[in-house]
Amino acid sequence: MQDRQKGLLLTAFGVLVLSPDALVLRWLAADAMQILAWRGLLMAVGLGLLLAWRYRGELPAAARRCGWTGLGCALCYCVSTIGFVQAISLAGAANTLLILSIAPLIAAALAWIFLGERLALRTLLAILICVGGVLLIVADRSPGNSLAGNAWALAAATLLAGNFTLARSRPAVDMSPSLVPGALLVSLLGFLFGGHPALSVPQWAGLAFMAGLLLPLAFTLIQLGPRWISGTEVGLLLLLEVVLGPLWVWWLLGEAPSRQVLLGGGLIFLTLCGHSLLGWRRAAPQPG
């Protein structure tokens, strides 16, 4: 198998593994902070085990290399995770994932502002169009739509973009060890402000399976992708979650998005696809 094929398969499989996350959160139907208490703890344990297997005895050194930038990544991960779970609880899967999908464009704007990276005209246009799509979603007045939930989703997208930007500021250093203290901070805040959720045995099993196994595995696989394929291709594959996440919830829980949310989401999705495909073509090596 060629390296590029390996990268595509690993990334695509990671996104598929990640896609039921919104479904599990909606199915639990518990207080967001209570879910975060155990989700963060299980995520920290699962990711810590994966990192220990990956680095063996070098894990403490890998964690120290993250430095202050890693601390920033941990804080961004913490707040973005809280925002994501709160948004899923208040606004539903479709709104949350569609708004969260603009995080790569926000990251491009942050890299332009703070890292001095060039902002392509197509990226600027894509940001403006996606802002229009987000406004359509936020302005929806259908039952079940929540302005607070949409605000949490936008905050999650912005902090996720901040995480991307910080990691990009030190490309030679693997920042994944910083996710462990970030997840532990999520858990601590969850226990302080939420407490212990009242879940059934099947719900506990679902939470443990998703947060302790699937999430660490998914993030590890997605992180490996850029070793063999471009960031543009990774971003294009991540759009699968925007499609699959709401479909899981729609199919199994009957939570259908409104027409206005579908319109705004379609505008965002088509814009991101077009932007990614243009970036892919420009990044492709020229023959001869």
From TrEMBL:
Transmembrane segments: 36-55, 67-88, 94-114, 119-139, 151-167, 179-198, 204-222, 234-253, 259-280
Gene3D superfamilies: 1.10.3730.20
Entries under InterPro entries matching the protein: EamA_dom, EmrE-like
Keywords, in A-Z order: Membrane, Transmembrane, Transmembrane helix
Domain of life: Bacteria
Chain ranges of the EamA domain: 7-138, 148-273
The keyword Transmembrane helix is annotated on this UniProt entry: yes
Keyword check for Transferase: no
Protein name: DMT family transporter
Organism: Pseudomonas benzenivorans
